[in-house]
Amino acid sequence: MPTVAPLDLDGHCVTASFLDDIPFFALADGMVHWLDHGQRSVRLHDGLLSATTTAKNDLMISGGEDGKVMTLTSAGVTAELASVGKKWVTSVASGPQGAVAYASGRNAWVRFADGKTKEFAHPRSVEGVAFSPKGMRIGVARYNGATLHFPAADGTPTELQWDGAHTGITFSPDGGFLVTTMQENALHGWKLVDAKHMRMTGYPAKVKSLSWSAKGKWLASSGAPAAIVWPFTGKDGPMGKAPLELGTRGNTMVTSVACHPSEDIVAIGYEDGMVLAVRFADAKEVLLRRPGKGAITSMAWDKEERRLAFGSAAGDCGVIDITG
Predict the structure, then answer these.
(1) Which residue among 57, 99, 154, 172 is the one 20 to 30 A from 93 at the CA level?
(2) Which pLDDT does position 154 carry in this prediction?
(3) Where is the Anaphase-promoting complex subunit 4-like WD40 domain positioned along the sequence (predicted)?
């Protein structure tokens, strides 16, 4: 039976993650808390809007209302990576070779490991940034589509048009597909080799959480009373195929998803704070956490694949050990 080690914090958890296998919880008020032989805390921002971890899980990168891009190590050491003045840094992403992307207003920046930065201006506000897993390339979610830049080279960006407000962005693990969350209750995708469109609609609510399965064959999403899991096994992705619907619970909405690092299993967090683990092959469910005080907002697996950190909108966070 899974065991839960709770951590009651005061405020909305933006990101729950592991740094060097230590659970970290970044809150919207700018405080970051972690569990390393007791609870430790540091103020990273005056209002935190976005936080992510590097692929090696050795560094947290965050952006805030104070216009700063900050880093935090598992030992609690903070550093300022960049500043955009009095504007808000609304999105951050970690890339290859120590590169970091961040966005504020209509601009996106890429900061390389040597400290050099490159700025990309857009006609409308940038809502999300992501690095491609292949090569030094970033995707920007914007109004009426997405833009792809090669930061290390000079050249014309690739524009992918689709009417509407695109609020978040992710590349498939093989780099072949780009998917955005939208202001409307939908996802939109492009097959990058030919810019073919993929429409993923029918959600009763906005999709705020996406997670790719280990080998990139599936994309799990929130925004419905089940985790909607789209198949990306064929060359055209999910087009013409029905998604899996996992962990259906009446009218209780799924608010967060986190695919297992190596197996076709997804952790599903709900608006009432419950967390389930569900297997893709047979939809078998395991209860990981009973309902809590607030909606699950973020989840992350550790390197050993046995612990799951979770955060909620009410600050009731914690770590689930699935081995008991």
Answers:
(1) 154
(2) 84
(3) 261-322
